[in-house]
Amino acid sequence: MEGTIPDLVQPTHGILRRIILIIAITGLQADPLFQAISFGAIGLSIQKRNNVNVIGDGPATMIFSHGFGCDQTMWRFLAPTFAKRYRTVLYDLVGSGSSDISAYDPVKYDTLKGYADDLREIVNEFAVGPVIFVGHSVSAMIGVLADIDPPSHFAAHIMIGPSPCYINDADYVGGFTRSDIESLLETLESNYLGWSSTMAPAIMGAPGQPELSTELTNSFCRTDPDIAKQFARVTFMSDNRADLAKLKTASLILQCSDDLIAPIQVGEYMSRTLPNSTLKIIDNVGHCPHLSEPDASIEAMNAFLQTLRCDLDDC
């Protein structure tokens, strides 16, 4: 039948999955043929939009979503480890990395809901079994929004440096005053490259690993400035505190001990507010422990996932 992919090359075929896994773990780029035979017509459209890459195999699916100014390469220290146990999905938010820039809609992406809608499509198209969502920074809230809008396929959330609101409000400590955020956004509007070179090292932290700050600076500078400006405003002005209580899914909050963007009070607030959450503090300076402290991040993730083994059909 025209347009039908033979059973032999469906993504469930073990040999093909092993080939894709080898490609991913060795750092090679997947040949377009593998993408074409792995995804259907709708999947190819979503794959192009979000530069979706699928590696690994297992009873559950782990989806990684990066933060502001980054792309899926930021998961290179974590994804290969978990691809040995789970079907692993990596993607770029529209406007970031190697996503399809022509798919960027300023109206759709003027709130985090636009990104959450994309995530739900990725889950529906590429996930198999229960879904473990790993979101860094703003993507943690994108995952929350995608989950609380039924039907949900999420079995667990791993939130790395999350914040439901960056602006201080009465007793709530978000880390910034409103004037701080407005000043930050004004600087970004007037001098994006200068803002990037100043903010990236502050966000990364990791004073003993300057190469990571350079990497993040370069990642910021590769992002389309107009898209980055809008995404920054959406990120830093969003307030998702009211959504936390709606999330019933088991969640791990990975909080760094010294994080300029998401101070420890934010992690503690989320732990108190999320009904089914675990807070783990990693000894790390900066906002990106998956890059600067990958071993500690993996250890914390494994300990959390161990408590959910039967829920993930991995007993």
UniProtKB/TrEMBL annotation:
Domain AB hydrolase-1: 63-297
Domain of life assignment: Bacteria
Family: Belongs to the AB hydrolase superfamily.
Annotated protein name in UniProt: Sigma-B regulation protein RsbQ
